[in-house]
Every structure is written in C-alpha cells, then in structure tokens.
Amino acid sequence: MPLPKIATPTYELVLPSTGKKIKYRPFLVKEEKVLVLALESEDVKQITNAIKAILKDCISTRIKIDNLPTFDIEYLFLNIRAKSVGEALDLVVTCPDDNETTVPVKVYIDEIEVLQDEDHTTDISLDGNLTLRMKYPSLEQFIENNFEYGGSEVSQIEQSFDVIASCIDMVFDKEDSWAASDCTHKELVDWLGSLNSSQFKEVEKFFETMPKLTHTLKVTNPNTKVESEVTLEGLTSFFD
How far apart are CA 216 and CA 184, in angstroms? Predict the structure, then answer.
C-alpha cells in the first residue's frame, strides 16, 4: 500500500512589474536540498539552474521566468522561501551611529515591498537625438549580482560594463533604430566606451533607480542608546 500524499498549500501574490496575480506553492525538502547544494558549489550555472527549476516547479501560473525583471525574481524567490521556511526572517544589522555594534532584528516578509522610483525610466536620452532603451538584467545576471562577491577593481569595472552592455535593448532616433540583438557583445561594450561621462551617468541611473526589494526598520544601539533607521535593499540583505 503506497504512502499517502501530503497536500501542499497554494498562495497568491501580485507581480510588481505588471500587477498580474500568480499562484505558487512552497518549495519541497528535495528542492531545498538542490538549492543548498547549488549555493555551496558557488557555481553560477548551478545556482541559476537551481533557482530557475524551483521557480518553475513552484509557480503554477504560466509565466516565462527568463523574461521576468530581476526585482520580480527577487520578490518571487523571497516569498516562496518565506512560505517554505517561515514568514519571519531573523537578521543581524549594524547600527549606523557607530557602524560597529550589531543587533538582532526580526523582519516579516509581508512588510517587504518593491520600491518604485518615480524617476526611473527605461528610455535614456543621450544627446537630444539618440535614445537608449534599456532592459532589466537576466536571471543569470541576477544570480551573479546576488551570490557572487569579490574580485579586483579592474574585474569589477569590466563586469559592470558587461552587465550594462547585456541590458541594452536598442538605440533609436526619429528615423532609425539599432537593435542590440544585431550586435556582438564586444560591439556593445565598445559603444558604451564612446559615451561621455554625463551620458554614462544617466545609464548608471537606470540601475540605481531600478525597482528593488526594500524594507526600512528602526534599531536602537544597546551601547549608545541611539535610535536609527536602517534600510535593507536587495535580496541578499534578507539573508543572514
């Protein structure tokens, strides 16, 4: 006689980018094991495949994971993890008044929001004629940004150019358009190098103002008794 099947609850959430409702379930122990092993490997491909597989398995609504903006992926992954291991996160934060003292805090998942900056835009005017249209980083870039650290200053600069180049959608004016898909990665990187400083700062602003997971909390330094606000941003801020 086979063992009885265990019922798995289903939940709903709204995607920040579109407002579309999707249904999902918590990940199972076997899926959590795959994720842990992938994270321990520190291999970007393994981590990407593991997270992609978990999202595909846990989400019952038909969506293309690879096409989702990074902030949607962060929001989805955090909520699926919350339903799987607990609604509250126990974190340790550093008190900003002395940048030394650490205090434990509890953050509830339903209080974490995706902050939308009013100044954010995907279309960047370069010179009054040309406009650069950007797209959000891919799932693989999301993994690299959230789970890879270190590297020399030169490699970080190169990586930054690589990420920006891969997020170019097209360049257009009133008469013509040039799709990034028609260019090689090197051509896109070289083209970025031809921008002046003010133009490049506008491109960087796209990433700085991009919607992101955000939660602000108050902490009191037990040594100085000073109360301060701490803002947590991005998925890695919610992992201890």
Answer: 41
For the chain, the domains span: 1-86, 123-208
Token pair of 223, please? 């040594």
Supply the CATH classification number for the domain 1-86.
3.30.2220
Render pLDDT for 125-175 as a digit per residue (tens, 0 to 9).
998 889 999 999 877 777 766 665 444 444 667 778 888 999 999 999 999
The single-letter code of the amino acid at 157 is I
0.90 exceeded by the pTM?
Answer: no
Give 114's strand partners. Answer: 213
| 167 contacts: CB under 8 Å, gap ≥ 6 | 134, 135, 136, 137, 141, 206
pLDDT at 120: 92
Alpha helices in 60-152 (DSSP H): 70-85, 139-147
- What is the spatial distance between Cα 138 and Cα 116, in angstroms, rounded to a whole number? 19
Mean pLDDT (whole number) for 67-74: 87
CA–CA dist 198, 204 (Å, integer): 10
Q: Which residues pair with 170 in a beta bridge?
A: 133, 179
